[in-house]
Amino acid sequence: MDITTMLFALALGNLSLAAALFFYEYERGKSLSWSTWAIAKQCQAVAWLLLYFNASGVLPDAVAVPAGYAVLFAGVGLEAGALWEAAGRLAWRRVAYPVIGLSVALFLVCYVIDEAGMRVVAGALILGGLHLAGAAALVRGWRGGSMLHRFLVIAMTLLALLVAARGILVLTMPGGWGWLSKGLLQVLTSGALYLLMLLNGFGFLLLAREQQRHELDRLALVDPLTDLPNRRSFFAALAPWMALARRPGQPSALVMLDFDQFRRVNDSYGHPAGDTVLRSVADVCKRQLRDSDQLGRLVGVEFALLLPRAGLDEALLVAERIRAAVEASPVKTERAMISMTASFGVTVIRPDDSMVSLFKRADEALRAAKQGGRNKVVAAPTGDAPGGEASGEETPPV
């Protein structure tokens, strides 16, 4: 395959990937990362078409080469940025745009100085460097990645180095290596770019697949509205602390809380306002906690709080602090400023507790807080009756 045919294949390949991505975006919801990648592929397709028309004699060097390489650098730089964005680095534009601008300026300077030699060196080194930047985004998932993921990282790195090596060879050995003629060197470089185009496409789709998998795994453990652990995740976090409670040492505490009369918010202002209130109040609660504390949403407006290595008195203070913060933090919605209060039931984990007995005791304390007028903190009884049932007088509300 000669160089002209290879340039045309590169243009068609990028156009095909851009078209395939359009339908992928449509099904997925048009995430920003995928749109960036589609623009990158379109830029590369335009660039290769310009260079193809130049190689075919349709466009002169003075028009096609500077414009083609400028658009090509922009496309490859955007593609690297899209890979970084898909990998979770959303601030890639702060680096990518200046790098693309400098690359274009450097190539134009080299083109003016020496049309035949320096532009080849600069173009190869810049393209190789930008492709390496894209491959670096895939390196972040190396440790937990699949064999395909690791293969893509290695292949993209080697091919990017091959593209950059063309510039080094031309710079150090303008005549090539005997059998490695200039024409063969161009074909090898173009072939490497063609494979890079395909591998970048696979790499991007691989990142998309891994993102979707991680998001599904996260949603299985996290409440999507408040971004707190859900019931399943909270119980999993609680289990080891219940096991530790059977050993001598400082106890841990469980707090159950429920937002008072939350139904009136949904009835009066609508469910979107209710969601806003719930998210805001959950954030208020999180700001009152230590890093080791665990707040989870069990169901509806009922939440549970695990306080590792906290006794009853300390847990009561934490619950009171959260209660006061919720009461003092009205939530602004589109229709009104809504004030909320919360009721709390507090207990410590006992050596003989099961999940059922622990939550039953905390729930009874929460119910007592509700019946006592709401916006209260009530501790569960501390005594043990025969058979493990709580006995004794109820601890007064805080």
Automatic annotation (TrEMBL):
CDD domains in UniProt: GGDEF (cd01949)
Catalytic reaction(s) noted: 2 GTP = 3',3'-c-di-GMP + 2 diphosphate
One Pfam family matching this protein: GGDEF
CC per GO annotation: plasma membrane
Cross-referenced SMART domains: GGDEF
Region (Disordered): 370-398
Regions crossing the membrane: 6-24, 67-84, 96-114, 120-139, 151-172, 184-208
Keywords: Membrane, Transmembrane, Transmembrane helix
GGDEF domain segment(s): 250-382
One of the record's GO molecular function terms: diguanylate cyclase activity
EC code(s) of this entry: 2.7.7.65
GO BP terms: cell adhesion involved in single-species biofilm formation; negative regulation of bacterial-type flagellum-dependent cell motility
NCBIfam families to which the protein is assigned, alphabetical: GGDEF
Protein's name according to its UniProt entry: diguanylate cyclase
Organism: Massilia violaceinigra
